[in-house]
Amino acid sequence: MKAFSFITADVARYTAEHTTAPDDVLRDLAEETLKAAGDDAEMQISPEQGTLLTMITQISGARNAVEIGTFTGYSSICIARGLPAGGRLTCFDVSAEWTSIARRYWERAGVAGLIELRLGPAAETLREFPVRPEVDLAFIDADKAGYPVYYEAVMSRLAPGGIILVDNTLRHGTVADYTDGEAATMRGFNDLVRADDRVTSTLLPIADGLTLIRKR
């Protein structure tokens, strides 16, 4: 169990032990991702975040969801499992290699029929998505420098009351202390969200930081 700098290993372990555990599909996916990606496996969300994604999708009643940054598919499975019958998830990612793993596990999880994958830079492929307020829920977990672009692209398509979740918004805790590099990039995004009078938001200290945003 990996602990980030702002959470002790004991607290991280306790949190995981008191959250609904992932099933065999998600556990196997996490193991395969670790073997295939090595250190890059940290791009995968934590099990606690996965459980939360499913719950928020269910609680919100989202039917039309978007994911920007799919990697090997853990988060997309969690979102798809929270959708009602007839729900849809559109995933945007640049990697055919990593998403080939996602496709296999979507099939195994029984959610492949709910998911459409669009390959290519999300800043470009999102332009092909209808600019109508029809998206109920979005999850952003891609290149951090692109977050402001992805955020605005989603906002222009988000229904009133719709939800955006954004990962890695604490950057291992560095956003509180550093004003350069990746920390500065994320501080800028966090400030953008805080100043946006179109939304209500809260930054949750779960895993590497997960910001929950609701459009007014």
What's this entry about, in short?
The protein has 216 residues and is an alpha/beta fold.
What does this structure look like?
The chain has 216 residues and is α/β, with parallel strands linked by helices. The protein has a single domain, classed as Rossmann fold (3-Layer(aba) Sandwich). It has eight helices and seven strands. A seven-stranded mixed sheet has the order 3-2-1-4-5-7-6, sandwiched between helices. A hairpin with a 5-residue loop joins strand 6 and strand 7.
Number of helices: 8
**CATH topology-level name:** Rossmann fold
Q: What's the CATH class, please?
A: Alpha Beta
**Name of the CATH architecture:** 3-Layer(aba) Sandwich
- Helix proportion range: 40-55%
Strand order of the largest sheet: 3-2-1-4-5-7-6
Q: Cα distance, first to last residue?
A: 37 Å
Radius of gyration: 16 Å
* Element order: H for helix, E for strand: HHHEHEHEHEHEHEE
Quaternary status: single chain
Taking the sheet with the most strands, its summary is: 7 strands, mixed
**Secondary structure tally: strands:** 7
Shape: globular
How many domains?
A: 1
Structural class: alpha/beta
